[in-house]
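Thread: Newbie trying to understand structure tokens

Hi all, I'm a second-year student working on a class project, and my supervisor (Dr. K.) asked me to get a predicted structure for one chain before our next meeting. I've only ever worked with sequences, so writing a 3D structure as a token string is new to me. If someone could post the tokens and maybe explain what I'm looking at, I'd be very grateful. Here's the chain:
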Amino acid sequence: MTDPTDAPADYRFQVNLKDLIGILSHHLYSTHDVFLRELTQNCCDAISARRRVDAEFEPLIEFELLEGGDTPTLLVADNGCGLTAEEIHEFLATIGTSSKREEADFITTRADFIGQFGIGLLSTFMVCDEIVLLTRSHKSEQAYEWRGHSDGTYTLTESDADLTVGTRVFLRASADSADLFTGDQILERLRHYCNYLPTPIFLTWADTRKQVNEVAPWSRTCPAADSEAAAVKLAQRCFGEGQILDVFAIEGDYVSGHAFLMPFHMIGGARRNAVYIRNMFIGANLNDLMPDWACLFAIVLNSDHLTPSASREALYGDEHLAAAREEIERALNVYLRRLASDRPAVLTELILQYEPLLKNLAAQNDHFLQCIFGVLTFETSRGRLPLSEVLADPGGASFVTDVDEFHKLVPIASASGHVVINAGYAFEPVLMSKLHLLHGPKLRPMDSAALLACLKEVNDPEAAEWAETHDLLSRVLRIYGVRPRLVRFQPDTIPMLYFQGEAQREARRMQHFEEQADDLFQSVLSELSLPPDPNELLVNVENPLIQNLQACGDTGFAESVAKLLYVQSLLLGRYPLGHQELLLLNENVGALLQRTLLGD
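---
Reply by user tm_fold:
Sure, no problem. This is what the structure looks like when written as tokens:
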């Protein structure tokens, strides 16, 4: 088809067109190739308008690249509703006026249309200096030719061409935009924007004719298996090649599409999403659509209810956007809840890759915490366990928010049969505080006194048998602020457990500071220090070493062994050795070595 040619009397656009083109180029649209989206959008909206009066017609959109002249010309044709002369003057020459807005029931029927701002056609001036439009309305037999120029003028004449209902737009590329007018380039960009539009779209160039679009992954006519495969392919195109851990559908009243669980290395600061409105691509990584905690997911979705901004590259914040966001968050929550029962392998992979991130997100978002807490794992006195397994224990669990204190309590917790959780790493103190409010006595702060109370005491008859050993330990260790307590616990390989309360820990810290300070500061610290209650040394009468100690008739040897076992209990509890303990260790190891070497 050749370019139409006549040029009668001039009219002027009702706007400063030169300045508008600069705004479109530099501020409203992110790239010049969006003119293809705008043209296609106009075609789709014209088809939607015609379908309202003729539901039986077969819609079609044709792109054709015409060679000839200094630069190529792109023809865009649709068999939509077309325009009358009055509509051309009103809608093509007045910026901000759209034919869609003139419908009496525009608010209730706006979901039929993609564009609503009346600036789409003029975006083509970013790539050409003249627009030629031939159109015939479904309301009339008369066809019209309209020519718009980048200097702000346009002409309108009646056309004698034998046109069917619809519109044809001719764009001759400007010299600096000719690189956009190649068959491969136009096909690639049309598929980027229009790949899932339901109206058949074809592109013809040279001897090639190809269909641009295909069935959308979220279409009800797409089989489930094909839908998922197509969705994954689309996600990799949008977000980068790489393994996608899992994919699942999102179906709601406001949005439909797919969500993807992304591998850790593909997580970025931006929310990963690709958004289509009425099957037209609008934009990627749009704000205010995904919940803040959902950075481990990417989503591709379509909506017939969301409203695009004037650039069609952002979303209008209204009640529809809020409802869509709620549907997306609900779908992500349901997926996370179902993983444990339906997809344990995926859950394991999720925890392996994401646990620090999951804990961070859960610490910030109470709703997300309630969805995910059961799969989070923690270091416990019984090894690393998921929280769901910990909470299944009839006795629940206690938690401590200090790593050193946890390691000191592990032997005692194991001996008493208690489960203690280490919540001392990043984000975990906040998590445990929130989970304690949710689960009450099943997950409680550590109560050291209650832990000690659960140990099995030596009964009265046995206490008499162990009285001499108890007295020896009391006498030898009193100077170190230790009080022995005879108990039974497993494993019997542990002879003694050292336990400090908070007051004793503070006193020990002060003692450590005193040892490191100069004379002046030592005197100040000694004035501040108060003598604490003795620390408890839990002596396991089931242990063979303790039993041998009871039977030992050599008091000096028994005292050396008792002192060394005391130092061992400090090391077992990961308590730092002070000057006194180091001296004690050296003296008694030396004494035992001397006794061995001399054969005593």
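A couple of things are worth pointing out once you decode it. The first strand starts at residue 11 and ends at 12. Residues 319-342 form the longest helix (24 residues). Feel free to ask follow-ups in this thread.
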